């Protein structure tokens, strides 16, 4: 959601082309995987990436955020640019080979549902703190936002919070949302109601 709220053109493209949501999930995983690194992988033989020699049985850390930018994209395309309509996206966010994540299919489905809900229910959603760097957990493995204030005239100001290491986002219970719609431009108070999964 951070990537989409920071790029209204991409949000608009996805809202106008909802059939691309599954592909957008792959592109979002390529550009901003939920895990920063995969620690403690061991080499099975000698290799020489970028001219640096790594011997057999050495411990390496895989930086998924960098690996996604190195993934092949169409000729002439910019790998550093998020493009939710990009086709045939490849990434290593779920691992590769034997250690490929067994939970990848349900995670992809959950992410697609989690994208579809705010795109359809909050058509004018925007970050309430635009321009402020997103707070992330201190150096570690996960990289989801600690807090993501958003604003919409469809709902009161809501706080999307990272629920756990899987990155499930939460929104306030529908019962906590005021029954009267907010007028455009009106600032709504932050709700303190308990959060529930609403996807």
Rg from Cα: 19 Å
Mean pLDDT: 76
Largest beta sheet: strand ordering = 3-4-5-6-7
Q: What spatial form do the alpha-carbon principal axes imply?
A: elongated
Family: Belongs to the cytochrome P450 family.
Protein name: Cytochrome P450
Region (Disordered): 169-199
Organism: Streptomyces glaucus
Task: Give structural notes.
This protein is of the alpha+beta class and 199 residues long. It has one domain (2-196): Cytochrome P450 (Cytochrome p450, Orthogonal Bundle), CATH 1.10.630. The chain is built from five helices and seven strands. The strands form two sheets. A five-stranded antiparallel beta sheet has the order 3-4-5-6-7, with no helix packed on it. The chain has a two-stranded antiparallel ribbon with strand order 1-2. The radius of gyration is 19 Å and the shape is elongated. Belongs to the cytochrome P450 family.
